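Crash report, auto-generated. Payload:
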Amino acid sequence: MERGVASLADTIFLILIATLAAGMILQSGLHYGETANEYLTQLMLDYYAKQTLRVISSVSIQRECGVDDYLLAYLKERAEKDPKNILDLTARGKLKETINNALEPLGDAYDYVFILDFGERYEKAFVVGRRHIIENGTVYEEDISCVYKDQDKSTIYSTLEKLSNPYASSTVFFFRMKNNNTYEYVPVEAGFVLWPAGDPQAKEICK
Amino acid sequence: MKGIGFLEDLPTIVPIVLALIIFFGGLSWGLNRVNQVDSQVDMALKLLDIVDTFAQQGVLTKETFKNSCDTAKNLIAGYGFTAYIETIDAKNELSCTGEYCCMKGSVPTGKRTILVRAFPITVQDTSSSIPTNRLKKLVVVIWKEG
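Recovered output after restart:
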């Protein structure tokens, strides 16, 4: 009798151990799939952000006079003529139209900001973008547009770091800027950040 | 008698076999899962390689598109793909025709894993007297051959 009970206990332990081992393998396998998917999403969307910046740097737009010109050339011209108001209503409109079209394959699934940071010398970062706000079960699309002065510039970057899943790329453009009575070529950091639409942290941008 | 001793031990073999089935079943599933995920990752990385071959040109022209197509065909082994340029709001298709169409192999039919991604890209438009750079999308479709 005792031998039978011992045998039964051994059997149960063996099945338990085998089930536990199989369960651990199952969990590892599932987690491996999740990690791989996150990695692929990061790769794809970082590349999408990089490609959107490439498009901004090379696409043509139609100017007010009906002539085609490069979008970047238009922004550089504005920076040279009116450095305090580079992204006026017209410039913002043209930028947003280009970026919204570039994000067409992603639909409304992602929000974004485009930042032009003129560095310490010119103390400004111009920000344009789009976000979705969810309030009382309703989703609103909102434009983002503001200028960060030097002392506040770190705010935009710390806010972007707090987004749940940001995908980003940056590059440097050279803008010709007036400095007293001379002109100089200033390296301007251009950044593009995407994140899943509706992130509540995005409300802090341009607050 | 020896035969009776063997028969007495037979019932204890059943749970051992059951435990082995549970363990090796789980192990087999785990290995299949890892292989499946690795295959998906590899396919996605190859897709990005194809996209980069075209996108690194900056602004695409007919000539650079063709050169990129030849490069991509030589670069990617073991996979078939379609890469084409389309207007930004067009529906993604699995195959293509026309000047801005690059195909390696034929689109598989039946139950196969196919990955499709679209990225924005600028393409030179020479239809007017002054070439302009138009925003289009580069669509890449990839599948495993064989």
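Post-recovery validation: Chain B has two helices and five strands.
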